[in-house]
TrEMBL record:
Family of the protein in this entry: Belongs to the HMG-CoA lyase family.
Presence of keyword Lyase: yes
Species for this entry: Rhodococcus erythropolis (strain PR4 / NBRC 100887)
Protein name listed in UniProt: Hydroxymethylglutaryl-CoA lyase
UniProt-listed InterPro entries: Aldolase_TIM (IPR013785), HMGL (IPR043594), PYR_CT (IPR000891)
EC numbers on record: 4.1.3.4
Length: 299
């Protein structure tokens, strides 16, 4: 059967804000995170310690971390691309870090100025260093289903990378459909390939972008395969500025609506979350693309 509870991994403050053209004050980001936690988010990706020239939107990572005082019960994670990012994150008091690699060469080049193997080597090095400091490490793989330049991505390739990351010590994996092209059969085939390599489902999270409207169907397929952690962003904010045609993440509200309808616990108060996303949309200056936010606002 389906899991009785699901961990929603909130990426709004990171994936959601990394491509916004509006400059968002650090204080607004902090309030966004505090409101998410007040609405019941138990896991939040706060920001990125990447090159500020690549992602100027998150260049205030140190200031944001300094401003936040979240309870230990909230799992907080920050994205780091390399040793320098790990050093900055540790100095800022990070409790968990996320490394990220690409399943395709063109995106490794555009997002990390590297190759697939070079990005894996960097992630492996950061993982070892972070684990030696006692930090859990999440390993993201981008372009797990398709890539705008290279087309469909073979599941075997993604499964091989996943196995390499798990062997290098990542404590969990997040499989990214960066441009939202995946469909449920492909999701099940990928999860099968990971199972064949002995990777436990309890270590796997799915990260869907809703570009082609497939995200919830893909979540449902993943649930039937035993996955119980899903990435989403409040109000459906977000995309990767280095991935052509990418739009927002699956909206947390849309995910919560489906999970609660299935009787699956998330810990999230939907009204409070919707208020937060609507408030954030005002700060950013454009309305939420989430269907559930739109419907509840009109109700
Ligand atoms: P590079 O230009 O090759 O880096 O970029 P470099 O090592 O040559 O360094 C260039 C300059 O950046 C140097 O400064 C470094 O010190 C500095 P300079 O000496 O010229 O003044 N630098 C840094 N500064 C601060 N913090 C750092 C850092 N690293 C270098 N950590 C690099 C390589 C990896 C740095 C760059 O490509 C980068 O930062 N990329 C990140 C891009 C990004 O954040 N993309 C979005 C997140 S991934 C995503 O959204 C996908 C995901 O959601 C899952 C999915 O949907 O698939 C996770
Ligand atoms: Mg993403």
């Amino acid at each position: 059967g389906l899991p009785t509870s699901v961990r929603i991994y909130e990426v709004g403050p990171r994936d959601g804000l990394q491509a916004e053209t509006a400059v968002i004050p650090t204080e607004t980001k902090a309030q966004f995170i505090e409101r998410l936690v007040a609405a019941g988010s138990r896991t939040v990706e706060l920001t990125s310690f990447v090159s500020p020239r690549w992602i100027p939107q998150l260049a205030d990572a140190e200031e944001l971390m300094d401003r936040l005082h979240l309870p230990d019960s909230v799992r907080t994670v920050v994205l780091v691309p390399n040793r320098k990012g790990l050093e900055r994150a540790v100095a800022a008091g990070a409790r968990e870090v996320a490394v990220f690699v690409s399943a395709t060469e063109e995106f490794a080049k555009r997002n990390l100025n590297s190759t697939v193997d070079g990005a894996i080597a960097a992630a492996t090095e950061v993982t070892a260093a972070a684990r030696a400091l006692g930090l859990p490490v999440r390993g993201y793989i981008s372009m797990c289903f398709g890539d705008p330049w290279e087309g469909t991505v073979p599941v075997e390739r993604v499964a091989d990378i996943a196995k390499t990351l798990v062997d290098s010590g990542v404590t969990s994996l997040s499989l990214g459909d960066t441009i939202g092209v995946g469909t449920p059969g492909h999701v099940l085939a990928l999860l099968d390939a990971l199972r064949e390599r002995g990777i436990p489902t309890s270590q796997i999270a799915m990260h869907f972008h809703d570009t082609y409207g497939q995200a919830l169907s893909n979540v449902y397929a993943s649930l039937t395969a035993g996955v119980s952690e899903f990435d989403s962003s409040a109000g459906g904010l977000g995309r990767c500025p280095y991935a052509k045609g990418a739009t927002g993440n699956l909206a947390t509200e849309d995910l919560v609506w489906m999970l609660h309808g299935l009787g699956i616990d998330t810990g999230i108060d939907l009204d409070s979350l919707t208020d937060t996303s609507s408030w954030m949309a005002e700060q950013i200056g454009h309305s939420s693309p989430s269907r559930v936010v739109t419907a509840l606002r009109a109700a």
